[in-house]
Amino acid sequence: MPMLGFGTWQATGESGYRAVRAALDAGYRHLDTATMYGNEAEVGRAVRDSGLDRQEVFITTKLPPERLGQEAETLAASLAALATEYVDLWLIHWPPRGGAAVPTWREFIAQRDAGVVRAIGVSNYSLAQIDELIEQTGVRPAVNQVPWAPAMHDSRTLAEHQERDVVVEGYSPFRNTDLDDPLLVEVAGRHRVTPAQVVLRWHLQHGIVVIPKSVTPQRIVANADVFGFRLTPDEMAAIDQLRD
């Protein structure tokens, strides 16, 4: 699973298609979509038109909670829209009605075992809900996709996911960040990058998968260019302390 992914929430229609194509051209090889985003067809078309081999692109989609009990049908529809025989990661988008959804998780396991899903996980789950899934089925989620940003950083929660061997995948890294924060501006200037690039690099150095989204080609390219610099331990520690 590539640590840097491209989020596609609100990227729909032709502009969504163009954004995904731009992301693939910029070097992204991890695309995050969902049934409820209504853009799986555009994501699939962009992958096909990119000329890349399907195995080069890691695709995530998600089951909406209102599809509880319709897991197989929903996945089949996602595969058809994406025009692929499998997805690399399938997530429960939200705990249905606030519960852990153990029966749904059992169906996720079955679909993984059938080979149409390479890995399974959850999104917006608490650690208690993850523990319930593990205790009831013996199968841990590979990923928990949750909002994450410097202002939301919780080192204990991150460590507890890592203890369970569950990858934290952070969404909305910019929506939950003041990119004009003086510290981020200072660190960005020191490395000759943007505050947004600093935020993404901070995620990566914490071992957090991050999925920024944009439909602006220049920002898509800039967000992919975060591997040519490294934050120092002091910079990481200072950013850890940012709060709303």
Describe this structure in words.
Helix 1 (13-26) crosses helix 2, helix 1 packs parallel to helix 9 (217-224) and helix 7 (182-191) packs across helix 8. The chain has helices at 13-26, 40-50, 71-82, 102-114, 127-137, 155-163, 182-191, 195-205, 217-224, 233-240; strands at residues 6-7, 30-32, 58-63, 87-92, 117-123, 143-147, 167-171, 209-210. Helices cover 44% and strands 15% of the residues. The longest helix has 14 residues, at 13-26. The chain has an 8-stranded parallel beta sheet with strand order 1-2-3-4-5-6-7-8. It contains 10 helices and 8 strands. With 244 residues, the chain is an alpha/beta fold.
End-to-end Cα distance: 30 Å
Percent helix: 40-55%
Q: How many β strands by DSSP?
A: 8
Alpha-carbon Rg, integer = 18 Å
Structural class: alpha/beta
Quaternary structure state of the chains depicted: single chain
**Percentage of β-strand residues:** 5-15%
Shape summary: globular
Can you tell me the residue ranges where pLDDT is under 50 for at least 5 consecutive residues?
A: none
Average residue pLDDT: 96
- How many helices does DSSP assign? 10
**Biggest β-sheet: strands ordered side by side in the sheet:** 1-2-3-4-5-6-7-8
The main pleated sheet reads as: 8 strands, parallel
What order do the SSEs take from the amino end to the carboxyl end, as H and E? EHEHEHEHEHEHEHHEHH
